Amino acid sequence: MSTPNSFASPASVCDNCGKTPSTSTSSSPKLQLSKCSRCKAKWYCSEACQIADWDAHRPACKRPNYILQFNLVPDIIRDPAVFRTLSVPATTTFAKLHNALQVAFGWANTHGYDFAWADPAYDSDENEALDREGFLECFEDATFWGFRKFVLRLREKDKLGVHNPDTMGGHVNRTHPETKEKSTEHTKLFKILDDKEYSDLEMEYMYDFGDNWRHDIIRKGRAPPTSHIVCLDGRGHGVAQDATITGWEALKEAYRSPSPNEEQRDNIYWYENEAMNGDSNGLGGGGPRARVGYK
């Protein structure tokens, strides 16, 4: 049956029978309209009306897109901030979303990744304190005995169907026996994002478990359905993949410097000539060592 939602403005009439909400009486309760739980666009006064309209409505009944903003390590990368806002079809798999993010952010797609939903009860300070006391060191894989960090993780699989760990092995720090895990290749967005169990949890997309390029995900709303992912907005030059987070900040400083020192010159050369996802025009896009305009 349809359910109330805020995607579309409330209708004034049932899209099947044309009835309008009426003032309730002792013998006639107030008529309430509910929208189609899939497309959020059609409104009905009853399940019977929705069923009666289904054959006509079915061809156009598609789930609305999600508008998602991805913020790259926003607690550190601020000058400028780096983010992308995407409109994503609800039936997109998380594996396809990963591929779109690689293009949108200019990554080289050579490392592991996952999508994760945070456990609100997790306390990083408590976990670190437990580790310092030595309890976690008693086990071969210490993280399995710490506090659960994520309620859910979506992971990629290799061609043999086995979960594919990153070569750095950093994914181990994100696992826990009480964390649910699913495959990105077989999980569609609406299966998770429409699930009330995860709707209020913080989300992130992690790329490269060595450098930990964390993209915080913010739900910005819904949009009419499309057949493909669209980048709606963004800011910030694509980040040098293997620079590390602190190395990226240092690289920006090198381009800002009116007189780069030897280490800064080496960083500039690396980025423009050797970095896997570097830019021969530098960060400014206007030729080697351009120092402005990388916002």
From TrEMBL:
Region (Disordered): 165-184
InterPro entries the UniProt entry points to: MM3350-like_sf, Plasmid_pRiA4b_Orf3-like, Znf_MYND
UniProt GO molecular function: zinc ion binding
Record flagged with keyword Transmembrane: no
Transmembrane segments: none
Tree of life domain: Eukaryota
Basic and acidic residues: bias regions: 175-184
Keywords attached to this entry: Metal-binding, Zinc, Zinc-finger
Domain MYND-type intervals: 14-61
Pfam short name (any one): zf-MYND
Protein name: Plasmid pRiA4b ORF-3-like protein-domain-containing protein
